[in-house]
Amino acid sequence: MSLPTQLASTTSWLEDVAGAGLLYSPSLLTTSASSLVICLACCSNIVKCKAASYNNGTGVCTCFDGTQSMVTRHGNRLWNRQFDGFTYIAQLDWLILLITDTKRKNADAESFCGTMGARLAVLDTDEKLNYLIGLHDFPDDTSIYVGATDKQTEGLYLWSTGANLTTNWLPGEPNSFRVEEDCVVVLNTGFNDFPCEEKANFVCELG
Ligand SMILES: [Ca+2]
Ligand SMILES: [Ca+2]
């Protein structure tokens, strides 16, 4: 059991249209259910379950935890379980929470994510960056803190996982435009180095 216990009671689900027609495995449970609601209720009882697929035609209900393999399965529809506001993206096996209704300094944003057992999101693949900026509620012309910094060595940007951040910078960035720009935000389509003391929106992930 790896998920924080405060998330275990959450029971809301959101359909993931991009995942329609796919079957993910290995499954935690595969069963027959007479309706979608029964399928989702069944999967809600499994603490580790992050998503469920249901096939209206066959009544096959599958609850699963990961994306180790997926095959096409006609008629399947996919639902992602919502963990206290976090959205689970099955294709990336990624749980994120985008905060756009409050702005915090970088350290305070990191702490806020930490109170939920999360951290500022590590966008270390093109797929994760593209998913985030493709969200319909991703705001235009707004800086969103992510989990990278060059505090240790000026100009060497590292994700909190230790991986290098070298791609997807906006044109001309990183530029240390203001005296100290040691934190990183997503702005529109790429990364910008940004003063850590300035308040910004942010995105958390459950690592
Ligand atoms: Ca810097
Ligand atoms: Ca900059």
Automatic annotation (TrEMBL):
Top-rank lineage group of the source organism: Eukaryota
InterPro entries the UniProt entry points to: C-type_lectin-like (IPR001304), C-type_lectin-like/link_sf (IPR016186), Ca-Dep_Lectins_ImmuneDev (IPR050801), CTDL_fold (IPR016187), Pan_app (IPR003609)
Ranges for domain C-type lectin: 108-205
PROSITE patterns for this protein: C_TYPE_LECTIN_2
Pfam families listed in its UniProt record: Lectin_C, PAN_1
Signal peptide extent: none
Protein name as annotated: Brevican core protein
Annotated organism of origin: Mizuhopecten yessoensis (Japanese scallop)
